[in-house]
């Protein structure tokens, strides 16, 4: 597939830190590459205020137009969300297709969604984004030949009127409600079985799926791309003590996620609020990893998962150029490609849990095989002794304070 040539445009607020601005631009470039675009020129302008009609000044728009003509770019992508009016005015001045960061992210999501729910959520977000931007899109739509920002379920329906789109939005919301209810049933069943749930969260491309696949032996999509995982997967994993847990891989976080998407992907992220434990994966080699870490913690707080026990895993230590100082605890610095490091993460999860859970001693007669299995699966056994004269097992371990098994411990 040939790559689409793209000019990136950004406004730098004089008060914004240079590092943060650079990191945001790198992210925009990665997003463009993930959407199969090739960046041929980057244009920035320092400007106190956004121009209400054209976002940037006339002179800058002229420069963008020339850059697009010179490099034969077919698309201009702005780093900010543009208003419907700005999008129209800029496209008129520049003469090529113009999209903003939100449309770019929506486009990637459209190409990545695998499950029915994922596809519905992307379509909902795209339609909600498009609705206020419909008027005046006539000329732009007749030029829609495909390409970045036009993929996904939206493109064939764009020419129809608002009422049709509004009906479709209502319809998708109804269908999503059903899916959410099914998911809740499923979660309720897991809770009744008291399955212990661990959710992996983190910025996009931090290594979550790699870790998930290696410790659960599954085939989740793994690639060095932003948003490689969109649909939450849950698989069983076994901790070193033999304790069984469910591990969920979640969608990657990103700075300035479009508002329509935060709403649409709420339910995918709700897996996190149902978790008992969070593994927060951070790409330690990323120049802006501190900001990324804060972004994720803030979102966890907003989702109501801020009080859960968290283990921060600083990944990609093989790419570090200098000594790394973690600033969250408890934490580990690892490379999830290394089997020894993955074991360290699992041991550390148990270590953190021991501090949260209740210690217990219990004697289980050998005749009660089922009960013994329950303790093995639902608690962390640290020692087990068989006493011949008593014909049974003395167990020592740790258990979740609210686990139903706990009342069997005398």
Automatic annotation (TrEMBL):
It comes from the Bacteria. Pfam families: GTP-bdg_M, GTP-bdg_N, MMR_HSR1. GTP binds at residues 202-209, 227-231, 249-252, 315-318. PROSITE patterns: G_HFLX (PS51705). Its cofactor is Mg(2+). InterPro entries: G_HFLX_dom, GTP-bd, GTP-bd_M, GTPase_HflX, GTPase_HflX_N, GTPase_HflX_N_sf, P-loop_NTPase. Its main location: cytoplasm. Residues 196-357 form the Hflx-type G domain. Monomer. Associates with the 50S ribosomal subunit. GTPase that associates with the 50S ribosomal subunit and may have a role during protein synthesis or ribosome biogenesis. This is GTPase HflX. It comes from Halobacillus litoralis. The lineage of its organism: Bacteria, Bacillati, Bacillota, Bacilli, Bacillales.
């Amino acid at each position: 597939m040939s790559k689409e040539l793209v000019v990136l445009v950004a406004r730098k607020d004089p008060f914004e830190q240079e590092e943060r601005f650079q990191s945001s631009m790198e992210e925009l470039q990665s997003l463009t590459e993930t959407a199969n675009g090739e960046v041929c020129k980057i244009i920035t302008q320092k400007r106190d205020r956004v121009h209400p009609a054209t976002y940037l000044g006339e002179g800058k728009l002229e420069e963008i137009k020339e850059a697009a003509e010179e490099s034969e770019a077919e698309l201009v992508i702005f780093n900010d969300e543009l208003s419907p009016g700005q999008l129209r005015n800029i496209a008129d001045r520049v003469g090529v297709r113009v999209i903003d960061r939100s449309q770019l992210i929506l486009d990637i999501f459209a190409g990545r969604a695998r499950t029915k729910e994922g596809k519905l959520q992307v379509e909902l977000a795209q339609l909600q984004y498009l609705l206020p931007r419909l008027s005046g899109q006539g000329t732009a739509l007749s030029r829609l030949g495909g390409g970045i920002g036009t993929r996904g379920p939206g493109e064939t329906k764009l020419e129809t009127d608002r009422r049709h789109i509004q009906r479709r939005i209502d319809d998708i919301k109804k269908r999503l409600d059903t899916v959410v209810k099914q998911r809740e049933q499923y979660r309720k069943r897991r809770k009744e079985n008291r399955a212990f749930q661990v959710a992996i969260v983190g910025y996009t491309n931090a290594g979550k799926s790699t870790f998930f696949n290696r410790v659960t032996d599954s085939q989740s999509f793994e690639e060095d791309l932003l948003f490689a995982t969109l649909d939450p997967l849950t698989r069983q994993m076994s901790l070193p003590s033999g304790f069984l847990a469910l591990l969920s891989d979640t969608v990657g976080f990103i700075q300035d996620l479009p508002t329509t998407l935060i709403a649409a992907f709420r339910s995918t992220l709700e897996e996190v609020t149902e978790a008992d434990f969070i593994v927060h994966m951070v790409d330690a080699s990323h120049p802006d990893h501190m900001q990324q870490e804060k972004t994720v913690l803030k979102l966890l707080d907003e989702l109501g998962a801020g009080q859960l026990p968290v283990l921060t895993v600083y990944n990609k230590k093989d790419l570090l150029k200098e000594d790394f100082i973690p600033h969250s605890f408890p934490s580990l610095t690892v490379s999830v490609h290394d089997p020894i490091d993955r074991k360290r993460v699992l041991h550390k999860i148990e270590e953190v849990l021991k501090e949260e859970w209740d210690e217990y001693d219990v004697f289980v007669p050998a005749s009660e095989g089922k009960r013994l299995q329950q303790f093995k699966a639902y608690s962390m056994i640290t020692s087990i002794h068989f006493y011949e004269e008593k014909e049974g097992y003395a167990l020592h371990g740790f258990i979740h304070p609210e686990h139903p098994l706990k009342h069997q411990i005398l």
